[in-house]
Design goal:
single chain, about 220 residues, two-stranded antiparallel ribbon, 2 strands, mainly alpha, Membrane-bound Lytic Murein Transglycosylase D, Chain A
């Protein structure tokens, strides 16, 4: 082979080798996929977990006091469901709302306890100061909630089940009373008050004209 032809072949080989090496180098220098192309993470975030945990702790405190609201627990369950589905913003919003409700329930307990102690010394003395023969005549616009909330009655609307139970012979539906009805206003022990308040807060859904199952259960206690 002539020397000239050999040199041409050598040059071609070198160029080919460089081209291959360049292609290989280019493939390894490709940038990593951008963050936008990465799969989104699913499941609860740390912030959502903390918000839900905090709500559960506060609800447990309210339950211990007997002042927990039934739908607070349902809201926490909804927050857990949203977190599991990856909707952490919604989970945090629901958990924070549940925490606020539990805090309100706890604050209400302390407020009512303080008021009773300041005005009457104790829950028992408050009830003793009310004549066992006290009566109330229903007027237009009344309901058991606002009657119980009157300062001349209990000063606490959540005690309305006490009136309902004492007058169940003339109240078919706790949500439906009539002008002119005369209700006896009973005195009650602290345990009876606690049971009444608990029922008022956890009664659940109700409709006019029907006796709810939860009401029947309360009357049977």
């Amino acid at each position: 082979m002539k020397k000239t032809n050999f040199l041409k072949l050598a040059v071609v080989a070198v160029l080919s080798t460089g081209l291959v090496a360049g292609c290989a180098s280019d493939s390894t220098d490709d940038p990593a996929p951008s963050a936008d192309t990465q799969p989104a993470q699913t499941g609860p975030s740390a912030a959502a977990k903390n918000a839900i945990y905090s709500a559960k702790i506060k609800l447990a405190r309210a339950e211990k006091l007997g002042y927990a609201w039934s739908y607070t627990g349902n809201m926490i369950k909804a927050a857990e469901k949203a977190a599991a589905a990856g909707d952490n913003d919604k989970a945090i919003q629901l958990a924070n709302k549940a925490s606020e409700e539990a805090e309100d329930a706890i604050a209400q307990y302390h407020s009512e306890t303080k008021r009773y102690n300041e005005n009457h010394g104790s829950v028992e003395s408050s009830n003793e100061s009310m004549s066992s023969g006290s009566e109330y005549t229903v007027v237009s616009g009344d309901n058991l909630w606002n009657i119980s909330g009157k300062e001349s009655i209990y000063g606490n609307p959540y005690q309305w089940p006490l009136i309902y139970k004492a007058n169940s012979d003339q109240i078919t539906d706790a949500d439906l009373i009539y002008s002119g009805q005369v209700f006896s206003i009973p005195s009650a022990s602290s345990s009876e008050i606690s049971a009444a308040v608990q029922h008022a807060k956890t009664r659940g859904a109700w409709s006019i004209g029907e006796t709810e199952a939860s009401d029947r259960d309360y009357l049977a206690q």
